[in-house]
Amino acid sequence: MHILKYGLLIAALSSGSAAAADSQSALADANFDQRWSWSGFNVGVIAGYGTQSDEQVPPGGGTPVATAEGDGDVYGAFIGYSHQVGNFVAGIEGSFQKYDTTFQDGSGVTIEDMWSVTARLGYAIDRFHGYAFVGGAMGNTTAPIPQLVGRDIGLVYGAGLDVAITNNLYAGVQYQHHDFDDFADLPVGVDINASMNTYTFRLGYKF
């Protein structure tokens, strides 16, 4: 009789332990399935603020003979692809940014828009993703004087941080720096070396 009771007790305990183990395993699997992955195609929109400056130097270099600055709003869109291996995330991104920034030196030169393609490398911890990037950019200007209207290709680099909101939606902040040497080789008797700093909020969707 005692043996039967002990047998029933052991069977009950074993059944309970197995059920608990199965429950913990299922919970672990569910948590694993809920982990965010940054791999995939993504698209989004951009909005923020930009500052710009230039130095007008004699051809070939030397002491600047004049400088100019400006600032204004920035907005645009981006599309890209990322692939995550472990905690590391690599990707490529193309973006278009429309600027409402005018140099405040009376020239009337306005940064019209900026196209860029960048390579990105980042580190992700679940739903947080910090990254740096570098690439090429093409900038366009408008001005009341035709000689100051130009287009040039320069360098862009920066860093950002994205945070997942839902399984597909994420938001982030980003800093960009653009550099242009002798912008568009404009026929104005000096080399115009221009740079821009852009601070933006980003809202993206990952497929």
TrEMBL record:
<protein>
    <submittedName>
        <fullName>Outer membrane beta-barrel protein</fullName>
    </submittedName>
</protein>
<keyword id="KW-0472">Membrane</keyword>
<keyword id="KW-0732">Signal</keyword>
<dbReference type="InterPro" id="IPR011250">
    <property type="entry name" value="OMP/PagP_B-barrel"/>
</dbReference>
<dbReference type="InterPro" id="IPR027385">
    <property type="entry name" value="Beta-barrel_OMP"/>
</dbReference>
<keyword id="KW-0998">Cell outer membrane</keyword>
<feature type="domain" description="Outer membrane protein beta-barrel">
    <location>
        <begin position="9"/>
        <end position="207"/>
    </location>
</feature>
<dbReference type="Pfam" id="PF13505">
    <property type="entry name" value="OMP_b-brl"/>
</dbReference>
<comment type="similarity">
    <text>Belongs to the Omp25/RopB family.</text>
</comment>
<dbReference type="InterPro" id="IPR051692">
    <property type="entry name" value="OMP-like"/>
</dbReference>
<feature type="signal peptide">
    <location>
        <begin position="1"/>
        <end position="20"/>
    </location>
</feature>
